[in-house]
Amino acid sequence: MTDLVEGAALPAIGLAGPDGGRIDLQTYRGRPLVVYFYPKDDTAGCTREAQDFSAVYAELQALGVELLGVSRDTPEKHRKFAAKYDLTVPLASADTDAALEAFGVWVEKKLYGKTYMGIDRSTFLFDAGGTLVRVWRKVRVPGHVDAVITAARALS
Questions:
Q1: Contact call for residues 85 and 99 (beta carbons, < 8 A)
Q2: How far apart are CA 45 and CA 142, in angstroms?
């Protein structure tokens, strides 16, 4: 597993889109991109984060910044999640371990004394050239989107 650090290039990986088609991250080159990884659809923290990103999605687009939320949930679960909460943020599925490993977000976690592997809530901001300019790891949801949009504004 790698730990993606500032200055690194946008990984050349593919994800499953909400319609079941493939999303190649390299197609985002030429404009800034925010990629955020979250553990699971329809859980309290993940729902709040998706709602917060949905609330600023139009502003990010106006700045020319693309946005993509990623979890291991299936495209079908993403569609249901988005419909249930009227989410506008685009969601993709890490349907292989390649994306999780490329971003270094597949980590050992502990809950109630049990150890398991899961996604570390993390956000990555790439500039238009595909260079990683900001990383947030072990994200706490309240206030996080404000920090991301402030950093995104600094790119324009």
A1: no
A2: 9
16 by Cβ neighbours in 10 Å (0-12 / 13-18 / 19+) ranks as buried
Alpha-carbon gap, residue 7 to 112, rounded angstroms: 36
Q: What is the pLDDT of residues 31-74, one digit of tens each?
A: 999 999 999 999 999 999 999 999 999 999 999 999 999 999 99
What confidence tier does 20 reach under pLDDT thresholds 50, 70, 90? confident
In whole angstroms, what separates CA 90 from the centre of its chain?
9
Burial of 83 (0-12, 13-18, 19+ CB in 10 A): exposed
Cα–Cα distance for residue pair 144/118, rounded to 1 Å: 20
- Let me know if 46 is a catalytic residue: yes
pTM for the predicted model, two decimal places = 0.94
Q: Side-chain half-sphere of 95: how many Cα atoms within 13 Å? A: 18
Among the options 34, 46, 89, 152, which is catalytic?
46
In the chain, what's the furthest Cα-to-Cα distance?
45
